[in-house]
Specification:
Shape: elongated
Order of helices and strands: HHH
Largest sheet: none
Structural class: mainly alpha
């Protein structure tokens, strides 16, 4: 494996690890915010009333899903040299 490939792979792994760490930080912050919102709702209007924090939960949940996709899948990642090389190899096999 060439040094350029190794450097590229290390950069990809570094970005992936950072995305995973950021995801878990976001998840913890969201849980804390959800608890605070539920507490505000409970102590101001209480059970049996409209549960307005659900709207914040929905929006934050959507953000958390996209963050998870970015952190734990290849979704949202840019095209790398390895991706280009693989596509060129695939096309050359198909044309041969």
């Amino acid at each position: 494996m060439s040094d350029a490939r190794t450097d590229e792979m290390r950069d990809q792994v570094r970005k992936q690890l950072k995305a995973r760490r950021d995801f878990w930080t976001m998840a913890i912050v969201f849980v804390i915010v959800w608890i605070i919102l539920a507490g505000i709702w409970y102590f101001t209007t209480g059970p049996g009333t409209y549960f307005w924090p659900a709207w914040a939960y929905l929006g934050m949940g959507i953000a958390l899903v996209f963050s998870a996709l970015s952190a734990f899948t290849r979704w949202g990642q840019g095209v790398t040299e390895s991706d280009v090389d693989a596509e060129i190899e695939r096309r050359s096999r198909r044309g041969a």
